[in-house]
């Protein structure tokens, strides 16, 4: 299920504007990797290049390569739709489909692609995915209720269940807790801990405590100034980044002396 | 409604609140209003009694009474409160007056339509045509059928074109083509309805080579020209309301763009789109001028959109009024009943649109 | 732009495989959009094609006018004059109504009142025509005759007064009622968009409600009011049935508001004469329609230009 990610000298552009420059890193399977850095440093942009979601924005394109288990996402003839089935994504704000029930939301990846699925398989998939997202016990009696009726934290876990129902190899999370209260955040963090048993997880976060709590490795991104491209400054074990970073900028940032 | 500009005061306060000094008590404007009406009423009474005017004039009383109120209210406020609050009160009464003036034609129009339309609002009006009818009797069945067929066909043409165009503009459109279409939709919104009728006529007269052509389908085309921009605009608004997050969520699940549009974007906005479509139908169903030109008028039933003249309800109203026979009463009554039917259809469509918008829209707010 | 990275540039330009579903769907939307281009092109081309014979028409087909331009002149005048009068009545009223709904009426009532005004927009024009001639015209006739008695020395109000009330001023009132809803709806939208901060700043300085509206709401809404009025003008220019039914047709240029000889409009003239027209007469009427199209196009174009310029400066979007 889980796959490694290797990024080689990746540049990301919006039109002619260079947003992220020269990122190279390697992410091992079954790990949690956190991207930290100040706002606008390109960490979310970079995360979105890992499943080609950045192409949703007109004019966005990349140079360089992203290899998932050796397969280049940006090779000739690669279908971004298929890429996204292998690399799932969870967004900053929970976004369940408002026209669908909780159960349908979990099945969205299957149903939206017009795939036929038997009732029993569907039920099994719903239960498996919701259990995987630690949400089963809370919603098992109201699978037909609308997803928008859940609390923010539950909605976010529903979105995670929706992502894992497609059986991806990698799960990307773009500040998944920034719209949630501390208790919901804790639930998500526990869940991330469990998800790494099966998936490669990459998470962007503004919260350094969260990065230190959940991640095995941490990448620090920074930006030299407005209009300059974001760069990967340092990438190492989380403990190293937070206790003994090798770059002064990283130390300033993690210790709160930044800017 | 006229003057609620005074801040809340506590009339029963044992000690006079210094903040309320220099402000007219709340009921004063209403007392002035009533007083003005009574005053003018008495004046009218005296004039009528003296034989200067013929009878008591309620319209004049209310009109001049209200004018008097506006002036007295201003003067009283100016003396007691000062020039600034006085101006404020003056404007407040003008603004409220503007609203009431706008209501008058609506009320009068609905009242006359109902009062004049009810006498012939009977079974034969909805079950008979005007074939071989001279004078009394007859009905508008042929016109109702024509209206339903022509408008239905217009909707059949406009809705797919309109919705697909809106999808193009919101989901795909970039560059020159999208800008050109946006501009031209604006232009189309401003086409006078009679010009749409002339276009349909000019078009079919030329390509079918029949200089005096009249048929129902031409009417549908003319109405489509008027309807398409409305559908495009309203659908566009609704599609723009669908949060981008939902599209992204769908893409992130590996769903292709077209399925995302068909299965996520459209279902989320379907209530709003339907409302827009119903409202656009209600807008064109009352169009008279283009149908007068290209669909023509007839006294007989015609179910075929593609040949011969076809009667429609608005044109029925117009021709009954314009070509009155003997007795004129019968023609006028039919015209009013047609108008009543038309107004009812439009009102029902509007109501349906609002209900759809209220009930079926998904709750996007979090 | 997801599945087809069409915007991909640079050396490693990607050519992702196209899904048939995507291609069919996006093509059909492009076709629908292009159809709109085609329709407008067709409107223009066919109207022009059918108009050409009119420009060389003989006086017989022009009701005695020497050439087409002599024929259409009074109609253009009547069209613009009636629409202008309607606008003169409708704009102040609409601003008042819009302010009433946006800033005076209680919040809970405001939306309902908006619907009520929108109901006016839903009434078909033929019903307005019927109402105008059977209710409004007899109702206003005494007022008109008083006006002529008192102010007959002003050319606008010169006599003799029409005995039926079917005058251009009556038509202007009907047109005003018909364009009220559109001007009101747009002005209301603009007024509601006034930045709350500006309004509160004015109120906090001790301004009365009217002073707040004068200093914060109206300056903000001015371009919106202008463009709403232009759109209303466009609507009034093209309005057919109400004019055709209320006025008895005359072809002349006159500023007198209250007499029984009134200039008619292009649209009304077409509606009244088209059913009986034949031969070149049809082409003449279509040509007048073309001129109406050009006039409304110009008015709407100016209105849109104002709206768009405002958008660029407001930063709201």
TrEMBL record, chain A:
Pfam (any one): ABC_tran
CDD domains for the chain: ABC_PstB_phosphate_transporter
Database matches in Gene3D superfamilies: P-loop containing nucleotide triphosphate hydrolases (3.40.50.300)
Entry keywords, A to Z: ATP-binding, Nucleotide-binding, Translocase, Transport
Domain ABC transporter: 5-248
Record GO terms (molecular function): ATP binding
InterPro entries named in the record: AAA+_ATPase, ABC_transporter-like_ATP-bd, ABC_transporter-like_CS, P-loop_NTPase, PstB-like
Record-given protein name: Phosphate ABC transporter ATP-binding protein PstB
From TrEMBL, chain B:
Protein's UniProt keywords contain rRNA processing: no
Family affiliation: Belongs to the binding-protein-dependent transport system permease family. CysTW subfamily.
Spans through the membrane: 30-52, 58-76, 88-111, 150-170, 182-207, 213-232, 335-357
Membrane topology: Multi-pass membrane protein
Pfam families per record: BPD_transp_1
Compartment annotation: Cell membrane
CDD domains named in the record: TM_PBP2
Protein name, per record: Phosphate transport system permease protein PstA
PANTHER family: PHOSPHATE TRANSPORT SYSTEM PERMEASE PROTEIN PSTA
Keywords: Cell membrane, Membrane, Phosphate transport, Transmembrane, Transmembrane helix, Transport
Organism in which the protein naturally occurs: Herbiconiux moechotypicola
Described function: Part of the binding-protein-dependent transport system for phosphate; probably responsible for the translocation of the substrate across the membrane.
Name of encoding gene: pstA_2
Principal cellular location given in the protein's record: membrane
InterPro entries per record: MetI-like, MetI-like_sf, Phosphate_PstA, Phosphate_transprt_permease
Lineage start: Bacteria, Bacillati, Actinomycetota, Actinomycetes, Micrococcales
Protein's UniProt keywords contain Cell membrane: yes
Stretches assigned to the ABC transmembrane type-1 domain: 144-353
Automatic annotation (TrEMBL), chain C:
Residue ranges of domain ABC transmembrane type-1 in the record: 76-303
Topological relation to the membrane, as annotated: Multi-pass membrane protein
Localisation per UniProt entry: Cell membrane
Matching SUPFAM superfamilies: MetI-like
Comp. bias (Polar residues): 1-10
Disordered: annotated span: 1-20
Residue ranges crossing the lipid bilayer per the database entry: 24-48, 68-101, 113-140, 167-186, 280-303
Keywords recorded for this protein, A-Z: Cell membrane, Membrane, Phosphate transport, Transmembrane, Transmembrane helix, Transport
Family, similarity comment: Belongs to the binding-protein-dependent transport system permease family. CysTW subfamily.
Function noted in UniProt: Part of the binding-protein-dependent transport system for phosphate; probably responsible for the translocation of the substrate across the membrane.
UniProt name for this protein: Phosphate transport system permease protein
Organism from which the protein derives: Herbiconiux moechotypicola
Organism taxonomic ancestry: Bacteria, Bacillati, Actinomycetota, Actinomycetes, Micrococcales
